[in-house]
Fold:
Amino acid sequence: MRVAILDDYAHLALKLADWSAFAGRCELQVFDRHLSEDEAVEQLQDFDVICLLRERMAIPRSLLLRLPRLKLICITGSKHRTLDLATAIERGITVSFTARSQNGQFATAELAWGMMLSLARHIPAEVARMKIGGWQDSVGYALAGRTLGLLGLGRLGSRMVPIARAFDMPVIAWSQNLSAEAAAQLGATRVEKDELFSRSDFLSLHLVLSERSRGIVGARELGLMKPSAFLINTSRGPLIDHDALLEALRQRRIAGAALDTFEVEPLPDDEPLRQLDNALLTPHIGYMAEELLTDFYRDTVENLLAWLDGKPIRTLSPPASKP
Structure:
């Protein structure tokens, strides 16, 4: 039985969980770089199991049909947006998931604050300057009194509110289904969408990607923002119109953006955002906290052992078809 552990860029999978129970039962192989679909077909032909880390690798129907030996897919988290679950089930492939972790569950919201402070105080540029013998060359902003806007006030968005209060920042929020009462209960003020963009000094995105939310931040919305405002996205890249944001940053219509997620990942080397001094980019590390990854991989080990013993646990079923 051959098991592939995919996209383990930081070489953590075998360190954070005990895989010793597979000795003599499975051959484990770790892949520490992203595979394109054609590369995946070539590299994974002889594997029975693939273990994924979140959505780093898409598993569409076209790939599933080209991996005839595949019997089990272990995903981390409870869903995988780019896995064709219906095709996997159709092919008789078991799909297991990991339970929601209580450890590090707000790591993404914490990263958003790190990005916000980095933008406000020009931390990356000043650190780089110190490394080459320079000294201060910029002036930043204090957060106190500046308005935090939240596009989405769910599990992670609501986590931003008490932290903002600690910084003495007023909080406004909008999403399509958010009521004034619900926002108030969480310590925020609900405003209309246009007001959210026009009033926010820092605008942080916390929406689930869907057809309704795709491209929800476009040229029109960016045009409503203050020239001194910053945009932070730790949710999903396609929430923002890439070309519109690129133009807004190039023309300095907004002060800057911090992005942890992108429409294409890993981000291509020639991506123009890489060249902009007002774009702070991180390689989708919002969930990359040791506590969270430990739970992910421990559950993956449990899932794989249960499946090998003929008693699979935490398995996914295809969504019910609409009438």
About this structure: The chain has a mean pLDDT of 95. The two ends are 40 Å apart (CA to CA). The chain has twelve helices and twelve strands.
